[in-house]
Design a protein that fits this description.
Strand content: 15-25%
Largest sheet: 7 strands, parallel
Structural class: alpha/beta
CATH class of the largest domain: Alpha Beta
CATH topology of the largest domain: Rossmann fold
Number of strands: 15
Length: 337
């Protein structure tokens, strides 16, 4: 790959920095197309001098996308947003932007296009995020039928927006939410040697199959070099399924903290999210909660990491490596001179 030029849209994000590092390690020249090139300057250290070049390129502009793609052998689209704000809408980024990149790549004669979507992509979903992710895939394939599409599950890693988010919440509150619990707790009598047993959590809330960020980066690298992946969709998931409650318990275990686990039915959560989503970069939106009303478990018929020759990394191995910083700081007694 030493002579290749690869353009990575959205390369300064969480997943992008892993992809850029792996591309640079192969000797490829990497053009990182982002909204703020200055903020992406740190990526230059991923390669030799001049090997990684951040450029400003809005996916809303035909001219900017064309300039970013010109001369590239491979194009990787990692752009996406979790919540809408201002001009950054799901339709604009997930559908129009993705389609524009695919059309421009095809017209420019790019030999490989990789599009990263989301596991929740579904044209019939009540979630606008999931619906536009599906529409984005179709826009890409309509313009560039040979594109490789990846649908990662919730991605975890040192800079993730899942465990780090809840770890930050944990520092400020006495409780962590468990979304998807029943509205009315189940009450049982004379169960497990208890006169009354109250089940607040049901089956533990929404189910997830989180995938390690570097495993996703590895999958993208396979597709960059292997044209047998052309025109295929891959669902990228980790090796284990966890309930929301189990994930919060893992968070507490790895941070050495004790917090209450608050069972939150979706109706109550959406009421609170209505207020939260009024702020820029909201921590929670009603659309995100709509997504959480469905379990995120890998389709048994889908191709995934195994077909790409990648063994998925368990969350239990990675979480301790970056959640340690959320552990309580032990005060040390001053030593006598």
């Amino acid at each position: 790959m030493a002579q290749q030029l690869v353009t990575v849209f959205g390369g300064s994000g969480f997943l992008g920095r892993y992809v850029v590092r792996r591309l640079a390690a192969t000797g490829a020249s990497v053009r990182v197309a982002v909204r703020d090139a200055v903020a992406a300057e740190y990526l230059k250290t991923a390669g030799e001098v001049g090997q990684v070049v951040p450029i400003s390129a809005s996916t809303r502009s035909d001219e900017a996308v064309q300039a970013a793609i010109e001369g590239a052998d491979c194009v990787i689209n990692l752009t996406g947003i979790l919540a809408e704000w201002g001009k950054q809408s799901f339709e604009t980024i997930h559908v129009e932007g993705a389609g524009r990149i695919a059309k421009t790549a095809k017209a420019a004669g790019v030999s490989k296009l990789i599009h990263v979507s989301a596991q929740s992509a579904d044209p019939d979903s009540p979630s606008v995020y999931a619906k536009t992710k599906a529409a984005g895939e179709e826009a890409v394939l309509a313009a560039y039928p040979e594109a490789t599409i990846f649908r990662p599950h919730v991605i975890f890693g040192a800079e993730d927006q899942f465990f780090n988010l809840f770890a930050g919440i944990m520092r400020l509150t006495v409780a962590l939410p468990v979304f998807g619990c029943p509205v009315i707790p189940k009450v049982s009598f004379f169960k497990d040697d208890k006169v009354i047993d109250i089940d607040l959590y049901g089956d533990g809330g929404t189910k997830f199959q989180p995938v390690y960020v570097d495993d996703v980066a590895k999958a993208i690298m396979v597709a960059v070099e292997d044209h047998s992946t052309d025109g295929k969709r891959y669902e990228l998931a980790g090796p284990e399924v966890y309930s929301f409650k189990q994930l919060m318990e893992m968070l507490l275990e790895n941070t050495g903290r004790k917090r209450l686990l608050a069972p939150i039915p979706f109706g109550i959560a959406k009421f609170g999210a209505w207020f939260i989503e009024k702020f820029p970069n909201p921590l929670l939106t009603r659309d995100q909660l709509t997504q959480l009303q469905s379990d995120h478990i890998m389709d048994p018929n889908a191709e995934g990491l195994a077909q790409l020759g990648i063994e998925p990394t368990p969350a239990e191995i990675i979480l301790p490596t970056y959640l340690q910083r959320f552990r309580p700081q032990r005060s040390q007694s001053p030593r006598l001179a």
